[in-house]
Amino acid sequence: MAPLVIDSTDPETVKISLERYSGKPIINSVNFEDGGVKLHKMLEVVKEHPACVIALTIDEEGMAQTAEKKFQIAARLYNTWVNEYHFKPEDLIIDTLTFSIGSGDETLTNAAIETLEAVKMIKENLKGVKTTL
To answer: I want to staple 71 with a disulfide (CB 3.0 to 4.6 A). Which of 6, 85, 121, 130 is the partner?
Structure first.
């Protein structure tokens, strides 16, 4: 069976996809952009159809820019995933996101450093979680 990443933030689309796939795919992506409404709907789908999930460091204020904020959102995602839904940390993949350092935007000069520091913080404190960029 070929590995599958379901790339949708729509819970109904993901549910239909999961019903047709016999393996354990990865869902890309969930976040707290809307306060977690879609995230919770998506995790209810995952309860019925196990999958790994890529979770983005985005909250109600937008994409996190600092390592501290990225980690804060990652910890919130982790707590929801592990403590609220009782899923395995190994099935959670945190995407700390970053803007291109080659964009020329001077406000993004430290974007890569902040992102790498956030990954380090996640690896040190959120045991079992995977990361991606």
So the answer is: 121
